[in-house]
Amino acid sequence: MVEHAQSFLVVDDIDVHYGAVQALFNVSLHVQAGEVVGVLGGNASGKSTTLKSVLGLVHPSRGRILFEGKPIQGMAPADVIDLGVASVPEGRRVFPEMSVIDNLMMGAYPRRADKAGVAADLDAVLTAFPRLAERRKQAAGTLSGGEQQLLALGRAWLRRGRLVCIDEPSMGLSPKFVDMVYEVLFQWKAQGQTILLVEQSARIALELADRAYVLQHGHVILQGKAADLAADPAVKKAYLGAA
């Protein structure tokens, strides 16, 4: 059992298999309320599988996952979301034939009884993302990749999750859109939002995160405060492009 049983989120010594192939080996991590925790690593390191395990998209073959003290391993994704988890998935996963507004409102569906709160948050999202406001009636599938990433963030914003799980937010985006996305994430951090962030771009993730874990071949090989990892020669060489 990991030492942080009272943490907001605990991933405790999990293994995950895809058929006969093992993707995670004894992976443990924890997230405190109000923290931003990064999960870093290269391709096929297991970082996205770790996030999918939290969301119920894959189920560990061993170990536990606790959200606010409640075991959630093996739960269906919809049930995990109902507990107060929001997701910004890899590849955005917008509903391409639905309008921008309808996509945003899908995020607010669990809060549908709170009409005033949803309306206020929708106004806030459209103010923060003028591109989405300009394209509010446009089909989401016609947006650029960067605009779809903003839409996925806005959808999670409307969910008002106590934990937001974000998978590769910078993937495939131009530097301009990466800056826009991370500007929002820094704002969320300042507001005390709890975030579990999977990111291949270690440099910017370590600027945002309070702590981070580095995965390689399904194993946690490094963990610690983000500032310490950013200064670690091994991390610099492997993930930050240092000579």
From TrEMBL:
<comment type="similarity">
    <text>Belongs to the ABC transporter superfamily.</text>
</comment>
<keyword id="KW-0813">Transport</keyword>
<dbReference type="InterPro" id="IPR017871">
    <property type="entry name" value="ABC_transporter-like_CS"/>
</dbReference>
<keyword id="KW-0067">ATP-binding</keyword>
<dbReference type="InterPro" id="IPR052156">
    <property type="entry name" value="BCAA_Transport_ATP-bd_LivF"/>
</dbReference>
<keyword id="KW-0029">Amino-acid transport</keyword>
<dbReference type="Pfam" id="PF00005">
    <property type="entry name" value="ABC_tran"/>
</dbReference>
<dbReference type="GO" id="GO:0016887">
    <property type="term" value="F:ATP hydrolysis activity"/>
</dbReference>
<dbReference type="InterPro" id="IPR003593">
    <property type="entry name" value="AAA+_ATPase"/>
</dbReference>
<dbReference type="InterPro" id="IPR003439">
    <property type="entry name" value="ABC_transporter-like_ATP-bd"/>
</dbReference>
<keyword id="KW-0547">Nucleotide-binding</keyword>
<keyword id="KW-1003">Cell membrane</keyword>
<protein>
    <submittedName>
        <fullName>Branched-chain amino acid transport system ATP-binding protein</fullName>
    </submittedName>
</protein>
<dbReference type="GO" id="GO:0015807">
    <property type="term" value="P:L-amino acid transport"/>
</dbReference>
<dbReference type="GO" id="GO:0015658">
    <property type="term" value="F:branched-chain amino acid transmembrane transporter activity"/>
</dbReference>
<feature type="domain" description="ABC transporter">
    <location>
        <begin position="9"/>
        <end position="242"/>
    </location>
</feature>
<keyword id="KW-0472">Membrane</keyword>
<dbReference type="InterPro" id="IPR027417">
    <property type="entry name" value="P-loop_NTPase"/>
</dbReference>
<dbReference type="GO" id="GO:0005524">
    <property type="term" value="F:ATP binding"/>
</dbReference>
